[in-house]
Amino acid sequence: MVHQPHQIQPQYGGPAALAHDAQAAAKLKQWGRRPLGADAIARIIDGGKSTLGVRQQPIDLQRLRDYAQEALAARQPLKTSQKRLKKRSIGHKPIAALASVIGNATACVLFTYLGDPGNYHCAAAYVKAMGLNLVERSSGMYQGKLKISKRGSSVVRYWLYLAALRLIKKNSPVRPWYLRKRQRDGEHAGRALVAIMRRVGLALYHTAALGEAFDAKRLFPKRKHKGGARQATA
Predict the structure, then answer these.
(1) Other C-beta atoms within 10 Å of 156: how many?
(2) What is the model's pTM?
């Protein structure tokens, strides 16, 4: 008899049921992929109590439960695919070098679409292949402004975007730089994320093509100003 892995059943179909469950805090603490702190749990429950919008009907609640069940059911095939991908990439030096910075799955995506970083003559060329090089727009509402070219496959940029989010989430030099940059840009998070993606692209080339160890601090080199002071570049 084949053992079937235990499936967690969706408990809530919306915020109202969560907000009115006296055991919600204990359940959220148990379900969290990583142990959720008391503050995070309180924010989730308070969010359920203060959510605005059209009141859900029974069919809406059931639909969300069905979606949640499908997402839970997809977890095991996902884990299996990740293990197979990891096994197939063993001994692959370029992928291993990329994976040390952005993880194995993202490394495989970049290698599939862009090839070996060592085949590019410089870091800027590798970033250009990602569509993250800056070009000046000659028409439209952004005329005269610098924007990323978005050349090549958008899949690469999407996976790098996720990698940038993971770097921001970690307790690393990336997060404080991101917060300062976002504040300077009027809380436009997209600009800061793109800036990090561009820097990660450059770092990936140096790691995979030149064999340099990745150091998040080097993503934001210091620059001198006329007064002699040094600060992180934006």
Answers:
(1) 21
(2) 0.73
